[in-house]
Structure formats: structure tokens, C-alpha cells
């Protein structure tokens, strides 16, 4: 009888201790807290400075956001992020963004679309994402699809809101999802719980529906040809005064010498010598040389 009593007491103690331990474990799970990156870790002060990866017309890209990813400041707080630039050929397109739930962890995504001047145009909130159960080909994930015009919003930045860090999401076990889908008996399984983390594995799928129209720039040659005479005239106008400013100033003695020598050569009948002196005088910018030659010839 004593043995039975002792056994019952031991069993009760084990139950109480188990309850206490499970309660502590439950409390520890609820109190999970993650801090957002600090301001000292922020890489850039403006969206135009973010490192953007170039995308193709169509993409099926798997990538990680982790502690090594750059940190930016958003309206929801600081976050590690990934930034992409859509193809310049893409116009209307469908974008599918998924965040995979792996090993009890997941990245709670938000996405911001920017215009060509890096100004926010549209924000895809975390609340817009839906939970998609896993199947034979994909994992359970947050997922959202949207249709955009890449010519108006050529950039996308993916991050997580700071107030979602550490929060937990409980999703239906895949077996339950299948049972509901096919109307079968619910299996006795435990629904998985995932914690929103600083990073995670994501997928970005892009399908271009319409290419952006190409518009050739007008030819430049005709404009240049029309503008050429005006440009030449302006150049000539600008050069002439400059040339006048740089003329050599001839001393009075030099001027008197050439004028006298030209006149004497003409008087003596040595016209070739007079012409030679005239050329030299012109080269030296001697004023009145031509007039002196003409007067001497007329006076002869």
C-alpha cells in the first residue's frame, strides 16, 4: 500500500514538474525577441545609393537576405534588404514574391516599388501576403503576386518591418491541408510554428507580358548642319576682335623707314624693290604703306 502511495506521489510530482517545464517552454516561445539592425549599420541615406541587382525580362530567382545583406531605413524601421532593377526592355509584367518557411524560421516580407527618380510609388505590405501551404514542389511560404508597369516603377526593394521581428505564425500542417482538400479524416499532427527572423530564403519570379516600346532619337546631323553657319559667324565675330587686339604695335621709326624707302624705290624706278618693301611693311602692320606706294607711283 505504501509502495502504491509513493508511486502515485511520484507520478503526481512528475506531472506537476512536466506542466511547469512546459509552461516555461511556452513562455520562452512567446517572449522571443529580435532587435532590428542599428542606425550604425545602415548603408545608405538615400534609395538612389542602394546596390541594385539587374534583372532579366523573365526571372525565377532564389536568393537570401541575411546578416550580411545591406541595411536600410524604412518607414517600418531598419532592416536588411535586397534591391533589384527590372529589365529596361520590360513594360507590363507580373511579379511573384515568395518567402519560404524553413526550419521554424521565415522572413516577413514587404516590398517597395520606386520610380526612375528612386521615389516610392507603391508599397506591398506584409499584410498583403498570404500563406501558401507546401506541396510536392514548394515549401510553405508567404506569397503575393502583383501586376506592374516596369517603365513607371523600374526598381523594387525587399525588406521586413521591424515590428514583425520575433512574431510567430502558426500554419496548418500540410497533411491537414490535403485532408481538407480531399474531404478526408483529419490526421493527428502538430501544426508547425515559424518565427519571423532578420533574414530568410526568398524567391522572385518575373514574367514580362509586354515589352517596352523603343523610340529612336531624332538625328542630330541636320540640326548641326543648320546651326553651322550661325556658329561659324559667331566664331568669326569672336575671333576678329581678338586678332585686332593681338596686332603688333609698330614703332614710329620703323613706320617712317618703310614709308620713305617705298617712296624712294618708286622714284628711282625700282618697282620690284618697292613691292618687296610694301610686302614687308604689310607683314609688320605698318599703317599707310599701301597709300605711300600708290602716291609715289601716281607722282612719278
Automatic annotation (TrEMBL):
Coiled coil: none annotated. Keywords: Signal. GO terms for biological process: carbohydrate transport. It comes from the Bacteria. Residues 1-28 form the signal peptide. The keyword Signal applies. GO terms for cellular component: periplasmic space. The keyword Signal applies. InterPro entries: MalM. This is Transcriptional regulator. It comes from Vibrio splendidus.
Amino acid at each position: 500500500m505504501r509502495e502504491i502511495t509513493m508511486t502515485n506521489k511520484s507520478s503526481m510530482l512528475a506531472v506537476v514538474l512536466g506542466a511547469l517545464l512546459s509552461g516555461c517552454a511556452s513562455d520562452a516561445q512567446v517572449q522571443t525577441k529580435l532587435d532590428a539592425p542599428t542606425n550604425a549599420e545602415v548603408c545608405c541615406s538615400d534609395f538612389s545609393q542602394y546596390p541594385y541587382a539587374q534583372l532579366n525580362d523573365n526571372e525565377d530567382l532564389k536568393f537570401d537576405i541575411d546578416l550580411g545583406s545591406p541595411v536600410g531605413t524604412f518607414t517600418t524601421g531598419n532592416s536588411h534588404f535586397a534591391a533589384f532593377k527590372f529589365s529596361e526592355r520590360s513594360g507590363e509584367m507580373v511579379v511573384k514574391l515568395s518567402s519560404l518557411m524553413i526550419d521554424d524560421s521565415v522572413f516577413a516580407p514587404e516590398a517597395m516599388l520606386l520610380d526612375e527618380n528612386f521615389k516610392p510609388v507603391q508599397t506591398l505590405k506584409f499584410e498583403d501576403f498570404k500563406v501558401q501551404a507546401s506541396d510536392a514542389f514548394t515549401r510553405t511560404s508567404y506569397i503575393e503576386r502583383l501586376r506592374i508597369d516596369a517603365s513607371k516603377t523600374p526598381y523594387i526593394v525587399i525588406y521586413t518591418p521591424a515590428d514583425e521581428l520575433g512574431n510567430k505564425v502558426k500554419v496548418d500542417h500540410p497533411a491537414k491541408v490535403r485532408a481538407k482538400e480531399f474531404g478526408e479524416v483529419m490526421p493527428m499532427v502538430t501544426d508547425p510554428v515559424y518565427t519571423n527572423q532578420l533574414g530568410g530564403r526568398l524567391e522572385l519570379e518575373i514574367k514580362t507580358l509586354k515589352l517596352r516600346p523603343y523610340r529612336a532619337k531624332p538625328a542630330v546631323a541636320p540640326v548641326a548642319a543648320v546651326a553651322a553657319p550661325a556658329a561659324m559667324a559667331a566664331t568669326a565675330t569672336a575671333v576678329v576682335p581678338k586678332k585686332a587686339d593681338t596686332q603688333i604695335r609698330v614703332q614710329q621709326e620703323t613706320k617712317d623707314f618703310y614709308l620713305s624707302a617705298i617712296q624712294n624705290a618708286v622714284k628711282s624706278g625700282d618697282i620690284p624693290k618697292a613691292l618687296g618693301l610694301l610686302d614687308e611693311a604689310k607683314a609688320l602692320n605698318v599703317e599707310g604703306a599701301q597709300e605711300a606706294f600708290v602716291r609715289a607711283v601716281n607722282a612719278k
